[in-house]
Amino acid sequence: xxxxxxxxxxxxxxxxxxxxxxxxxxxxxxxxxxxxxxxxxxxxxxxxxxxxxxxxxxxxxxxxxxxxxxxxxxxxxxxxxxxxxxxxxxxxxxxxxxxxxxxxxxxxxxxxxxxxxxxxxxxxxxxxxxxxxxxxxxxxxxxxxxxxxxxxxxxxxxxxxxxxxxxxxxxxxxxxxxxxxxxxxxxxxxxxxxxxxxxxxxxxxxxxxxxxxxxxxxxxxxxxxxxxxxxxxxxxxxxxxxxxxxxxxxxxxxxxxxxxxxxxxxxxxxxxxxxxxxxxx
Amino acid sequence: xxxxxxxxxxxxxxxxxxxxxxxxxxxxxxxxxxxxxxxxxxxxxxxxxxxxxxxxxxxxxxxxxxxxxxxxxxxxxxxxxxxxxxxxxxxxxxxxxxxxxxxxxxxxxxxxxxxxxxxxxxxxxxxxxxxxxxxxxxxxxxxxxxxxxxxxxxxxxxxxxxxxxxxxxxxxxxxxxxxxxxxxxxxxxxxxxxxxxxxxxxxxxxxxxxxxxxxxxxxxxxxxxxxxxxxxxxxxxxxxxxxxxxxxxxxxxxxxxxxxxxxxxxxxxxxxxxxxxxxxxxxxxxxxxxxxxxxxxxxxxxxxxxxxxxxxxxxx
Lengths: 281, 316
Known about the structure:
The complex is a heterodimer of chains A (281) and B (316). Chain A has helices at 8-19, 37-40, 58-65, 92-103, 137-152, 171-190, 205-208, 231-238, 249-255, 264-278; strands at 25-27, 34-36, 72-74, 79-80, 109-116, 119-126, 156-163, 195-203, 217-220, 260-261. Chain A is an alpha/beta fold. In chain A, α5 packs parallel to α6 (171-190). The longest helix of chain A has 20 residues, at 171-190. Chain A starts with 7 loop residues before the first helix and ends with a helix. Residues 11-20 of chain A have low confidence and may be disordered. With 316 residues, chain B is of the alpha/beta class. Chain B folds into two domains: 7-52; 58-309, 2-enoyl-CoA Hydratase, Chain A, domain 1 (Alpha-Beta Complex). Chain B is 49% helix and 16% strand. Chain B has helices spanning 10-24, 32-51, 55-62, 70-77, 119-125, 132-147, 165-169, 172-185, 200-204, 225-233, 239-246, 250-255, 274-293, 297-309; strands at 79-83, 96-103, 106-113, 152-158, 190-199, 211-215, 219-221, 261-263, 314-315. In chain B, α1 packs antiparallel against α2 and α4 packs across α13. The mean pLDDT of chain B is 95.
């Protein structure tokens, strides 16, 4: 047999192995490298090879950001009503009920007070796992109250966004949450208190086009998708493929819409430093 | 007379044409009784058709290609209009027009999305879909209104903010968000009017104010019925159901507490009589502006935060 002949099956072997995860192994969407579940927690749910972030729940992100045990959740049981009696292939009321049951959350955001390196903050974190992190009346109200809490406690506000945009099933009510949250933020501005907006993958639609883009400091995680229109819609509109890296955090930084792109493991330190700079001694 | 006829308008238009024809020959023949009978029929037909429009039919009226657009309202409602251009950063967006004009003899800043009437003008106006520079131009003009202490009137008529590649590059989301924030803070009165389509963030980007009015046959919502259908039903064919589910008409939004007032249109819709439609809106604007002119900047700001803060429904 000639020395350069290799059996085909040998070559195929390694590439198929990469595709198949048995549950304990995860593949990074960005670099394609594999990592073991057990490595995830220590890496704060980011890829150990390329810094890309895996999606985490609001609860996990609060743990990553805040001092241990400092979070006091407010309005935990605030729930959406179904003002329009909305029904598509499924009734919104049923969808809500099923999602509450499967996620253990009551809507797409957790909010409350906490501390970062002993500095008190008002914080609100979205959860993409709850109907795509969509913003309806509950998310809007929780943000409004988070602004009020920051003003009352004379502390900074942190909003962590991860959302597909407004929640269609609440019709015009969901659209108005954009105005409601942006209007309320003017009070924080007038009080001279800092607002740090952190954008996770993905942050799009009405969330980006309201409170997420209004931070005194706009920060995103590496490679997070951030935009107004979704990539699929833009592709349809312009009828050609989108350039590599379009609407990713690094692209927005380059275009001037972000202050910083910060890997998850450095987020807590960066936020703590900003809070010190922006809070009166 | 309307050039484009929607399916549900057809029987009415046909009867009207018949009456017109009979009137032309009236000198030769005695047709008075017949004309009277036909006129009664057309009136009954109008009442039954326009009194029972489905939500989807109202969406079609809101998009009627013969409807008056922003520049038509400006022409028929105001005098001394001076159009102002450009955002001073990137360029002049033709999908949003604006400038100072006199309404009832007093200077106002009037800003709105502008659609085109034919292919050429629609391309020029980008079908009323603004880019970031459009929202930034609108904000610049509102700043001028604040400087010279003039109230702002915005006329909303857009299928949405433009979902293009350059729009994203130049910060479509930031431009809209900035307007929501700054319109809340503007020290002069703002009246918002939905004159046609009010689609999503692209509409709301010039939609924060002290009073929000909707013309009778318009729609305002978080998404168009077609897009809603494609996302939730995974098909473009459920637009009628989506329109019903979204509850997007003027009476719907009044009942939801999101708008303050419905402005009536001429019978059959604003497209049947531009001058009358403009007069009805002008009368309402003059009424609405009067109490707002007396309010102090801080009062306006506080009321706006409260007004939009009350929107939404939840259980605690």
